[in-house]
What does this fold into?
Amino acid sequence: MKGLKSLLLHALVMLVPMLNFGQKTNKIQIYVTAANTAQRLAPVEVRPFEMAVQPFENEIFIQIDTLSKFQKFLGIGGAFTDAAAETFYKLSADKQKEFLRLYFDEMEGIGYSFGRANMNSCDFSSDMYTYVDEGDKSLKTFNISHDLQYKVPFIKECMVASKGKLKMFVSPWSPPAYMKDNNNMLQGGKLLPEYHQTWANYFIKFIQSYEKAGIPVWGLSVQNEPMAKQTWESCIFTADEELNFIKNYLGPTLHKNKMQNKKLIAWDHNRDLLFHRAHTLLHDKKAAKYIWGMGFHWYEIWNGGRQYDNVKRVKEAFPNTNLLLTEACNYPFSWDTFEEWKWGENYGENMIHDFNNGAVAWTDWNILLDEIGGPNHVKNYCFAPIHAKINDNSIHLMNSYYYIGHFSKFIRPKAKRVAASSNRAQLLTTAFKNADGSTVIVVMNKSDEKFDSKIIIGKQALPLEMLPHSIATIKM
It folds into this structure.
């Protein structure tokens, strides 16, 4: 009799978790964006948990291990360019409020918390400009009056909308023309040796001016795309040249001016040469002590495809170095292709791979552009997640907005990535544990197939239907 009671008690203990499966679904939320449907970050019905059992070869599942934790997450956001600011102020006040809500409200929008701003003009400026008079080596004429018209007030409005959570870093596209060997802000060229210290001082002046204007600067990158000669603002820094500038000029100058807390980001170019640049810079201890992280872009697709593994290689070789994507966009712009689903999938695929390979943050390019993909003073037009038609005073969301939102809305700063594994190549996944204890899992299906899958976490399994060309976020 005693043995029977023990057996019944054991059976009851085994049954209790099963009885709780259906009750736990009220703590779970699933949001879906799917092609050929009206679903855009749409909540869907949550099916009851099942008991997790040994999966067989024909079963499709995502395995989550919240005990295996990796990098701390900083945020997701975009670039606060002149083009974005100018377009914003061409909209009516109510449309401006809608835009701010769409990007920065955590409940009604997608909760952006990270941003980038250009120092001096870039291609997405209406004109070429610097903050000093031509030939001013002493920088006595330095002022940011150009930015006070649009860009500074725009960033400040976004900071308020984000409730002060916006981390901003700044990047130069080119020094003033007189500091370069080609005497031109465009077409590459190099910083002349006699202006190395002047250019380092220029960074300090810019940061001080922005902070005086009410914009805290969290970090800075050394040079946007330092190995690209562009028809727009650009400047070439080889690996050895960037090493010299960081080690002997920019790093010491930041410290001398009590700005050692500013996060210094090197490289800021494509993944293809990321490891080469990291190898050169980070093996030099005198330079590495100044470098907080390595920034990268996604445009290496021009050279044959995405090279995600180079992000992983840097993290393996230099585990204490932070990695973040600092720029990405879809191009060339055409309103005729605005609705194509590939634009959003580009973001989903890249973000999942970059986070899984160690990225702590992810920064899109322009957060707003007009109906021709500008303004842009060299006609280098591209897409943004949100476009405005100025004549109609209307705002238009690309599917890329929703794909980014599947990450930025739910994965919050200070989260830690946890292990997530898919047993099907067609299903990409990443997962994070937020500081509030919630777990966020993102699953993307880029294929034409529909998958009936399961999320296995601990001893439980959550059924999940993945529609063709869809992305889902599970928060539990």
